[in-house]
Amino acid sequence: MGKSTVLRYLYGEYAAKEECITTLIPTPKFPTLFGMLKYICSDFEIEPKRSFVAQQDALQEFLLQSYRDGKNVVLFIDEAQLLDNQQLELIRGFLNFETDEHKLIQIVLAGQLELRDKLNTDKNKALYSRISTYSMLDPLTPEETKVMIEHRCSYAGIHNPFTAEAMETVYIKSKGIPRSILKLCALAYEMMEMGGEKSITPDYIEDATPEVAI
Asked: pLDDT per residue over 161-213, tens digit each?
């Protein structure tokens, strides 16, 4: 199970709670800081404003009203390693929205290891110090890699074409990293179809490995 799967599970759990107001940003690619702020506000059904300050004030008022209504606002952001320092500073600013006793918004960031490295710098020290908890996912085991491949095949409605040896090779080449497992398997599957074969052997995984950034 990769970080995105975990994040979406958490998002689903919170979204199902009546006392929670949630939104999920799957890929935070925004051309401007104002664009990012407006996107988040739009997800919370906050009307667009003409200026950055006015939009930020509208968000703060929304959070205050949500708090008065007994609601817990949670923002989930996947692929958070894509956030630049200015965007991370904007997120830190959201954490300044608070009462004397409560934060008005909870923020959950999920990302690759670059996110950890980016947060652990002088520029983002203020945000890093406000992280209440963090966790890292361990790589999958060989058995977990096999289960993941079988689950993905089942989800796609196809028979698992990977031989036992091929799945073992996927584990070795990917080092158990879910993203790398999926990339290797997808490319190996394409190669199998192009070759008119019905099964994926370790040779396909070996051929696919140089094409995948692992």
From this structure: 999 999 999 999 999 999 899 999 999 999 999 999 999 999 999 999 998 87
- Domain ranges in the chain are 3-128, 142-211
* pLDDT digits 0-9 by tens, 49-105: 999 999 999 999 999 999 999 999 999 999 999 999 999 999 999 999 999 889 999
**Phi and psi of 196, rounded to 5°?**
70, 25
- Per the confidence metrics, is the pTM higher than 0.90? no
CATH, domain 142-211, list 1.10.8.60, 3.40.640.10, 2.30.30.240, 2.130.10.10: 1.10.8.60
Cα 214–chain centre separation: 18
Q: Which CATH number applies to 3-128?
A: 3.40.50.300
